[in-house]
TrEMBL record:
<dbReference type="InterPro" id="IPR045082">
    <property type="entry name" value="ATP_syn_F0_a_bact/chloroplast"/>
</dbReference>
<dbReference type="InterPro" id="IPR023011">
    <property type="entry name" value="ATP_synth_F0_asu_AS"/>
</dbReference>
<dbReference type="GO" id="GO:0042777">
    <property type="term" value="P:proton motive force-driven plasma membrane ATP synthesis"/>
</dbReference>
<feature type="transmembrane region" description="Helical">
    <location>
        <begin position="77"/>
        <end position="102"/>
    </location>
</feature>
<keyword id="KW-1003">Cell membrane</keyword>
<keyword id="KW-0812">Transmembrane</keyword>
<keyword id="KW-0472">Membrane</keyword>
<dbReference type="Pfam" id="PF00119">
    <property type="entry name" value="ATP-synt_A"/>
</dbReference>
<dbReference type="GO" id="GO:0005886">
    <property type="term" value="C:plasma membrane"/>
</dbReference>
<feature type="transmembrane region" description="Helical">
    <location>
        <begin position="171"/>
        <end position="189"/>
    </location>
</feature>
<feature type="transmembrane region" description="Helical">
    <location>
        <begin position="20"/>
        <end position="38"/>
    </location>
</feature>
<keyword id="KW-0138">CF(0)</keyword>
<protein>
    <recommendedName>
        <fullName>ATP synthase subunit a</fullName>
    </recommendedName>
</protein>
<keyword id="KW-0066">ATP synthesis</keyword>
<comment type="function">
    <text>Key component of the proton channel; it plays a direct role in the translocation of protons across the membrane.</text>
</comment>
<dbReference type="InterPro" id="IPR000568">
    <property type="entry name" value="ATP_synth_F0_asu"/>
</dbReference>
<comment type="similarity">
    <text>Belongs to the ATPase A chain family.</text>
</comment>
Amino acid sequence: MDEKTASFVIAGLKFDLPVIISITVAMALVFIICVWMAHRLTMKPTGKQNALEMLIEFTNGIVDGNLPNQTGRELKFFSFVLFAFVFVTNQLGLILHVNVGGVTFLKSATSDPLVAFTLALISIGLSHFLSVDKGGFKKYVKGVYFSPYAALMPINVIDQFTSFMTLGLRLFGNIFAGEIVMGLIWELAKSYGILTMVPGLILAVIWMAFSFFIGAIQAYVFVVLTNVYVGEKLE
């Protein structure tokens, strides 16, 4: 697929316009949806308020399963926002993929490796920061790099790097592959008119449902692993 993207340069730095637009749209959607769902809260939740509380309880459960302590309580809001943002971003390209004249302007931002790895860096960086903040630098170095034996330090360093790489690659790979396959299905649907349009549309609907599920799973896995990494470094 020869998909082009718009970009611009500021002070020698190249910025990918679709990524900026996609992240901005995802953040706006998360904010608007959460404000709408939390509007006019009542003691007996119904409808959208009930859905919001279920989502909060779901992400709180992820945190409690890995960090049943003060740090976990401090990370509950972060985990909720992280899950909501990654989930919406994963689905955005499926619902609102915008391509004008062969140039993409809106897609799933997590299908870009830089975005996926930036999110992974935030999660891994947070785990290291909290380890130093809660236990001190000396305990952090001993627990993360020299545990259980000092001789394992090189392996532990590699382990920290691979944790970052796998966290980013897992998210990027699944969302990128989903968009590529969806593009191929649309190309198939348009290839021979009505002969391929009907089966192509059926395939597109099936793949969209499957991709929606995968996007939700990836958001869940990302938040779970973020809390697991924090928990490991606070042991």
